[in-house]
């Protein structure tokens, strides 16, 4: 959730504001752009413009800039911020995109860019300057985290690529990308300062901090992120938005972030703690003009820091070229400003491309004009009050009573319409001549007894059909049974379960009568399938995240083979809940697993998952050639540590391409399709890495018999580990094992790279 700084004021209790004195940290000065610690590169021009604008302002005017005010004399208009990474939330005549968690499941860089670009265009068209996204984190150290529908996958590399592409797309659309959440905002439970109630404090070792949690922010900042939202939780005992080590030392110095740090709701508590801690934009209640002017007089705040704050608010505006006067004016929520263009096509194609086929036996899929079909479950059809449901940040039920196609809280989708599976399947049935019936209720039992058949006469109808209206006869009488289930959660409430008794019982009941039962899942995160996955009557399973306004069409495209499934899991599906960390209920949350999140844990502990990270079936098959590995820039690896100057996105040489790996992939099956070719690296011991880590992926579409070459360019960063002692990214000497395959556990070919 994100409001303007002014709207925020009412949420803060005055008692908080002067509750504690935060000394100025000795890392405060590090974050000043004027130190020249960061080589601004292609931000230099925007910096010069921002500097000269701020130079014309009085301190009062600078304070106005940092508290969401306009400065008429300087021609500065307050920026308009808006949630979220799925589109301008709450706006009419905007597209109901699929959640970014679905987008990540495409593993398709072009699709990721295309969707984010379309979303960015919608923000721009509605007159917003800052789009609060992408949301790289919550990252998903625990699958119970309530907000994973908004995430981009539980692997730093995948998440980083997607975050970088999303950032670039927003910038290309002409808006400022306001990524979140910085940092270690991994759960909803105890996340926020409320009255006297302190948020949890996250503690993670410095190595995992860099290799898992900061990693995607490197991509974002390199790609041009202009605003970063600091989180509600604490890190190492101090609020994220007042944590100088986090904001000044890491974000603004090590990562070279040149833009503005803005607070999540109620994440700013004190005037000088936040200003000196690195927050650049905040509440006018906390940053009253008098308070800050007096702070400068008494030395609690430096003039240099106030100037830096004002400049940091303005730089991204120039960098995104928002000063050109071309942007449409700010639209109000219900104004008829239609920004949707042809984006519904993107929603449909991305939705289909994101679906993971988990199981497919007896040639259950694709469907081909079934004579009879029965569909079951409340997730197949519409919710009673339409697609746009109640905004809640106070926890959510664990399932959704209707077809789940969007997120909740600040990740909520605003739907202009929603094609449900029932709708899309009905249209298809009409074309194909399929008899279709449904029961859109997970626990339905028909209490009206079947009428007795009078002797010598045909059976009496129990309502326009020869079948008694109930789950068992519908299942028994159908050539194919489709059961729809979901899992729901959102901002403000963590998951309480990873499976659901009512839904699992529905599947088992249907399957006990129907030997061709297909399950379709739409979930906001991990949804376990153990209760029925081995049931031989469950012949196929589709696993999707919330797919947006075209959800039913996307699902039908995959069910009938118009689209060959090519989504891949961005998280591991375990056999047991106990294989994952739970929600932390203490006020100090030690992320003891460090880097061993998701598959990295399963691999290191040798735990067999049900479906591993990167997994997904297709209607065709692919074969892999041997892998060719080359060091393309050996001189760049001569030094152990990255030595480049610090630019926007960290030391510049981290981004040098130093090696490459390539394979040829062949579609040796019987239908056209797309493969996600994945590269995993095992490092020399010194790097102290997980068993293997993802360091490349490409989606390649191949016709039957077609061959294509996939090339992975490896950057210096991809071979680096964080050397805690040296406080630098380092490349270990030794042998790297590079494995290429179809998932994290289906490695087809491998080779070595010696540094
Ligand atoms: C602050 O400075 C002291 C002494 O110079 C140093 O020991 C300490 O590590 C510094 N703290 C931070 C957070 O950099
Ligand atoms: C928090 O403290 C730990 C242990 O002292 C340290 O390794 C880590 O870098 C600190 N994190 C931040 C963000 O300062
Ligand atoms: C400002 O600084 C003075 C001394 O430097 C200190 O006593 C005072 O508490 C500070 N005020 C705030 C609000 O931090
Ligand atoms: C949507 O429209 C844009 C701009 O007119 C065009 O470039 C793009 O190809 C279209 N996309 C689809 C999927 O039709
Ligand atoms: C589902 O069916 C059961 C049993 O027939 C009934 O009690 C329940 O109210 C129905 N639920 C909904 C949401 O209609
Ligand atoms: C599978 O379906 C058949 C009916 O076709 C039924 O007899 C059998 O018990 C079912 N098996 C399971 C495991 O439900
Ligand atoms: C396609 O290649 C895979 C992997 O090499 C192999 O297992 C499969 O049998 C091949 N399929 C066909 C139809 O040749």
TrEMBL record:
Pathway: Glycan metabolism; cellulose degradation. Belongs to the glycosyl hydrolase 3 family. It catalyses: Hydrolysis of terminal, non-reducing beta-D-glucosyl residues with release of beta-D-glucose. Its EC number is 3.2.1.21. It is found in: Secreted. InterPro entries: Cellulose_deg_GH3 (IPR050288), Fn3-like (IPR026891), GH (IPR017853), Glyco_hydro_3_C (IPR002772), Glyco_hydro_3_C_sf (IPR036881), Glyco_hydro_3_N (IPR001764), Glyco_hydro_3_N_sf (IPR036962), Ig-like_fold (IPR013783). The keyword Glycoprotein applies. Transmembrane segments: none annotated. GO terms for cellular component: extracellular region. One of its GO terms (molecular function) is beta-glucosidase activity. Residues 1-19 form the signal peptide. GO terms for biological process: cellulose catabolic process. Coiled coil: none annotated. Residues 675-744 form the Fibronectin type III-like domain. Keywords: Carbohydrate metabolism, Cellulose degradation, Glycoprotein, Glycosidase, Hydrolase, Polysaccharide degradation, Secreted, Signal. This is beta-glucosidase. The lineage of its organism: Eukaryota, Fungi, Dikarya, Ascomycota, Pezizomycotina. The keyword Hydrolase applies. It comes from Hymenoscyphus albidus. It is an enzyme of class 3 (hydrolase). Its main location: secreted.
């Amino acid at each position: 959730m994100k409001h303007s700084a002014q709207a925020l004021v009412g949420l803060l209790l005055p008692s908080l504001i002067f509750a504690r004195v935060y000394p100025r940290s000795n890392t405060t000065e590090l974050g000043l752009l004027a130190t020249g610690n960061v080589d601004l590169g292609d931000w230099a021009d925007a910096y010069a413009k921002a500097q000269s604008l701020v130079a014309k302002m009085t301190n009062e005017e600078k304070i106005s800039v940092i508290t969401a005010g306009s400065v008429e004399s300087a021609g500065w208009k307050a920026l308009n911020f808006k949630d979220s990474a799925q589109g301008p939330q709450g706006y009419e005549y905007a597209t109901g995109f699929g959640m970014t968690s679905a987008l990540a499941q495409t593993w398709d860089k072009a699709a990721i860019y295309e969707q984010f670009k379309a979303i960015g265009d919608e923000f721009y068209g509605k007159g917003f300057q800052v789009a609060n996204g992408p949301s790289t984190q919550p990252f998903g150290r625990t699958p119970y985290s309530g907000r994973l529908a908004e995430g981009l996958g539980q692997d730093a590399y995948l998440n980083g690529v997607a975050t970088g592409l999303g950032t670039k797309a927003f910038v290309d659309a002409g808006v400022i990308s306001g990524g979140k959440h910085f940092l270690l905002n991994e759960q909803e439970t105890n996340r926020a300062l409320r009255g006297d109630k302190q948020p949890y404090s996250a503690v993670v070792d410095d190595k995992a901090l860099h290799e898992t949690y900061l990693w995607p922010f490197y991509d974002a900042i390199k790609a041009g992120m202009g605003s970063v939202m600091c989180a509600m939780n604490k890190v190492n005992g101090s609020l994220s938005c007042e944590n100088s080590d986090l904001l000044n030392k890491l974000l603004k110095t090590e990562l070279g972030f040149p833009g503005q740090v803005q607070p999540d709701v109620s994440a700013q508590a004190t005037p000088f703690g936040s200003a000196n801690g690195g927050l650049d934009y905040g509440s006018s209640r906390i940053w009253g003009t008098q308070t800050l002017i007096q702070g400068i007089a008494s030395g609690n705040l430096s003039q240099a820091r106030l100037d830096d704050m004002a400049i940091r608010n303005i730089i991204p505006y120039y960098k995104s070229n928002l000063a050109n006067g071309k942007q449409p004016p700010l639209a109000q929520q219900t104004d008829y400003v239609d920004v949707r263009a042809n984006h519904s096509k993107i929603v449909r194609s991305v939705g289909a491309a994101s679906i993971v086929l988990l199981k497919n036996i007896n040639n259950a899929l694709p469907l081909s004009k079934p004579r009879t079909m029965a569909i079951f479950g409340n997730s197949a059809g519409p919710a009673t009050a339409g697609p746009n449901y109640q905004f809640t940040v106070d926890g959510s039920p664990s399932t959704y009573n209707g077809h789940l196609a969007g997120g909740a809280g600040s990740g909520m989708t605003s739907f202009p319409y929603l094609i449900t599976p029932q709708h899309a399947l009905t249209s298809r049935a009409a074309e194909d001549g399929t008899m279709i019936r449904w029961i859109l209720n997970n626990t339905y039992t028909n209490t009206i007894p079947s009428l007795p058949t009078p002797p010598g006469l045909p059976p009496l109808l129990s309502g326009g059909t020869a079948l008694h209206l109930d789950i068992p006869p519908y299942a028994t009488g159908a050539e194919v049974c489709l059961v729809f289930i979901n899992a729901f959660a959102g901002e403000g409430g963590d998951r309480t379960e990873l499976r659901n008794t009512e839904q699992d019982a529905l599947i088992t009941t249907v399957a006990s009568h129907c030997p061709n039962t297909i399950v379709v899942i739409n979930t906001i995160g991990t949804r376990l399938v153990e209760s029925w996955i081995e049931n031989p009557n469950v012949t196929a399973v589709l696993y999707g995240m919330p797919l947006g306004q075209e959800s039913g069409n996307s699902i039908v495209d995959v069910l009938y083979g118009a689209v060959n499934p090519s989504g891949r899991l961005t998280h591991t599906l375990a056999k047991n809940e106990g294989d994952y960390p739970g929600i932390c209920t203490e006020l100090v949350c030690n992320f003891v697993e460090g880097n061993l999140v998701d598959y990295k844990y399963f691999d290191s502990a040798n735990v067999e998952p049900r479906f591993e990270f990167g997994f997904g079936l297709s209607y065709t098959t692919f074969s892999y050639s041997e892998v060719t590995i080359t060091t393309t820039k050996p001189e760049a690896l001569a030094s152990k540590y990255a030595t480049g100057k610090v630019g926007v996105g960290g030391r510049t040489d981290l981004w040098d391409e130093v090696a490459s790996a390539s394979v040829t992939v062949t579609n040796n099956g019987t239908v056209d399709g797309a493969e996600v070719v994945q590269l995993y690296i095992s490092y020399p011991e010194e790097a102290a890495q997980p068993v293997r880590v993802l360091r490349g992926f490409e989606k390649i579409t191949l016709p039957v018999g077609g061959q294509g070459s996939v090339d992975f360019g490896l950057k210096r960063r991809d071979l680096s580990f964080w050397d805690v002692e040296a406080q630098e990214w380092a490349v270990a000497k030794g042998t790297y094992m590079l494995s290429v395959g179809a998932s994290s556990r289906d490695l087809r070919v491998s080779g070595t790279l010696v540094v």
